TrEMBL record:
GO terms for biological process: signal transduction. SMART domains: TIR. Pfam families: Ig_3, TIR_2. PROSITE patterns: IG_LIKE (PS50835), TIR (PS50104). One of its GO terms (molecular function) is signaling receptor activity. GO terms for cellular component: plasma membrane. It comes from Paramuricea clavata (Red gorgonian). Keywords: Membrane, Signal, Transmembrane, Transmembrane helix. This is Toll-receptor-related 1. It comes from the Eukaryota. The keyword Membrane applies. It is found in: Membrane.
Amino acid sequence: MKFIVTFTRHVDMLNFSELVAIILIIMLADAATGSKTTSDIKLEGSISEHDVVIGSNVNLTCAAFWSPKKSCNIMWIKNSKRLDEKMKHGRLQWLLGKQISFTRRCSVAKFMIRNFSSNDAGKYECLSIDKITSFQTDSEEGSIIQINAVTCYQGFYCPKTKTKSVPKRCPTGTFSLYKNATSIKDCLPCPADKSKREHWKRRMETKIVAMFQTNCHSSSLIQGKTSNLSSGAKVAIIVLPAIATLVFVMGVLYAFRRRKAMIKYREKLLNSFKDVDYDPLKVPRSKDVFVCYSSKNREWVHEILFPKLKSQNFKVFIDFVDFEIGKTIDDNIVKGIYGSRKTLFILSKDSLKSLYARKELYHALAAGKTGHQVLVILYEKCKAPAEIAGIVYLDWTDEKNRDRFWERLYNAIRRPLPNETVHV
């Protein structure tokens, strides 16, 4: 069984909203931590973490996890000694929790202490009845809270500095109420008279939120129990993360829609040949090679590759020479690929990014059914796409074997296709 122990101001009964909040916290914590012990120890209604002003009425509350093998019955331990669960009247009262229908949760069990005294101070533990034989050594960390009895809340003071200061707690046995307290000298001794202590305690509890707005307005009180932020800052803290989340979600949606649009555009581009009226078998093969490349590699193709191919009397189909004005790009690509014996694909980072270069490669590979062949030149180091990963390529990046590169390229273009007749 797992526990969440909280320390709250005394009330006659836990209202519905508080119960729902605790249940939600337990459910979220359970989902986040799986089978690990989940705990949340806190002191509500007090400006101190574990200190209780003598004479106060307080509750110890324990919310337990339920399982079929374990009940919702719990026991309270004080300073390693079990308290009597029969205490249902008087200054100390015990209320047991019950299983919440259709859930694995238990309702909140409470141990109420009226007119808190110094004798009530100590270490309190909330344990499952199932652990009765081992509660002294098998306590779960989240089910323990240390409570101290004090005559008044210590309060804070804000040291004078050139920059924004952080509030410091007054020494034990002293308190500071006013927001203009700037040194330890402003921490006053706790009143000896009980009525005066109650008076100062009530004033501190009602005015603590407004404290330090002059000297420590930018800092949080020690242990984070009280916020010193202005209403505008609080709104900003709530609104800005919401706006950031909204912007992030919109960015993700935009990226998703853009990617989806790009995929559709790519599919449309690659499938555009469906609208071209042609018969591959009737396109005459009048060219030796169709050159497929990215426009960003134009200089190398136009000034080095193309002249080299022409010097060997190869009939080259290349866009800036052979594309017919007035015809669509798709018509020209069809004529180039199916009118050539082979396609020479210049593999580079730019050609892989170019939709038109990839489109030409895609259809050149598809033309393989008619005997067409694809040759690959590695222009720069990059990862080959899956569709040509199995093709042996010519490596232009190997500068030591450039002569060998051209010789192999010429031979590859001249080599007859399987369906070609070789004339001797």
